[in-house]
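Letters spell out the chain; backbone shape is given numerically. Take this protein:
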Amino acid sequence: MNYRSTRGKVQTSLFEDVLFSGYASDGGLFMPEKIPVVDNITLEKWKELSYLDLTKRIMSLFIPPEEISSKELNDIVIKAFDNFGHKDIVSLTAVSNFNILELFHGKTLAFKDYALATVGMFIDHFLNKRKENTIILVGTSGDTGSAAIESVRRSQWVDIIVLFPKGRCNVVQELQMTTVRDQNVHVVRTEGTSDDLDVPIKNCFSDHVYAESNHLCSINSINWARIMAQIVHFFYAYFQTCEEVGETVTFVIPTGALGHCAAGSVANKMGLPVKLVCAVNENDIVHRAVSTGDFTMSEKVMQTWSSAMDIQVPYNMERLLLLFSDMNHALVDSLMQEFEQKHILKIPQDIQLKMRQVISSASVSRDQTLQTMKECWDEYQYLLCPHTAVGVSVIWDQRRCNNIKTPTVCIATASPAKFPEAVKAAGIEMPLTPQLAQLLTSATCCSDMKKGEDWDLILRTMISDISRKRLSN
């Protein structure tokens, strides 16, 4: 398996290189040079596999055995999921006339746990072999930060720096990050949006010499290993939903940075007959890009109940452009340079047409999100988090218009227990869980980046201090 940046100027044959790279040095995101295709005979064989076994099969297509042997991969996957709270790791629940794929049975109660559990294990596996340290940089607008912390907080080889936007994560999400006291965990609260904090992070990774000398790594969905792990969700839910291999299943995806959409698109290219619907809130750059080809940043990011979707630079659009341009790296490089310079991009017509054969989109308002949470609870006694409610709202709207005629799965991105403010705003009474009650009384600790300060300098100083401390030890 060979990997190449979406912009085509950097390539490697090592999964290890991709795992530790974050952004490629040319500013792009790593992708396999060629997507492996799975035939119907293989799909039939995979239909009866457990989530763990399916994870191993799919990951083995992208990880050379010379780097991680079959036995090592088996051990990594089993250990990664040994503390998940559901016997099948994931669960599929029928609600109304569709299924909800519950991806919130991990330690931090969000779908990020599923991918990051394995990514953290991969990182530890290689670092232990090298006897080297790394610094992980993470920007989060919701659940990624706490899941990333949980995946590496006890690693002797890793320090992790997490940046989150002040006032734009809810109380539980913030506490899950700021109450961790492990010495290798460093949490920073920033005055701005998640798009703002992505800038100094990307600047660090784009400075290739700096990133390499400080052993920087990312486990946002910038990282290909995150996308690879999320591909499994689509295969597993497809097999649980379809009556026979070959029929189409539609996945409705509450969408932020397009990581799940990129994973579903790769699954489609691998031969899985799936359609994808990107469900977004009022921050609708993804909806505009998919429906009209207008990939233009808005003047500001609106704050909504579905905070993880409150972004205007969904960086995995770059991977979608590559997949639906027939892997035209030079074109993607040109398009992304134009977007970075102007914050405006018109997606070429031929890419739009190919993309729409697989992906459609819809936008949901704040009020509609709360209304859907209330209706789902009142009619089906099923409680939704606000992100999942965006997806369910789209399903109900499109079913009323007869736009979705296939078996349908909505991806549930987080437990509603993580969003007590939204649940209360929807008019639903929900008792505090023991975990939440403990968080609300826990002491917090984090540093701050304020508007007007040099965030690049602050972040690089923090990285340098961590590197020096590691060297002195």
